Amino acid sequence: MKHQDMRRRIAHAAARILAEDGSLDYGSAKRKAARQLGAPDSGNLPDNQQIEEALRSYQALYRADETRAQLALLRQVAIEYMERLANFDPHLTGPVLNGTAGPHGGINLQLFTDQQKEVEFLLLGLGMPYQAAEHRAAEAPVRIYPRFVIDDPRASVEIVVYPSAELRSMKRLQADGNPRRVRLPQARTLT
Question: Which listed CATH number (3.30.460, 3.30.450, 1.10.10, 3.40.50) goes with 65-188?
């Protein structure tokens, strides 16, 4: 019971860190929270689902109106970009999809296409500043995918481009049964 209580405390502290700072990922936030609570050993760290639940609770308690408005804006911006990128099978994923995006939140899109160079040509045509980089998936760190971060004044938009065939092998659902990603028609129903 003692370990479960510490996991719960770390999850809530990590949720507060994520909500207030927003620049950390779940893993970094839970390690920082554990250090702050004097429990740096990894045996007490909560899983990401526990942190997500704690983040939802925190946002509902302390920032309900602000979170709702920010989430609506981010989802609208995501839909705009998905429409622009429609030829590349865009999928919305991350905090904007699962409803935990806050004031520091960005938009995460995954594209599935065998015409990866065409994505960059389209981004050039949009006239928005962006940065090109590489993405290594946690489950397959040897695989490298193109990654673009668009500097939209409303929110940063991170795009990772996968070959079309990769979609079939990716997990569809999260541990809690919710989808990991949705296509444009489903994204439109989120707003």
Answer: 3.30.460
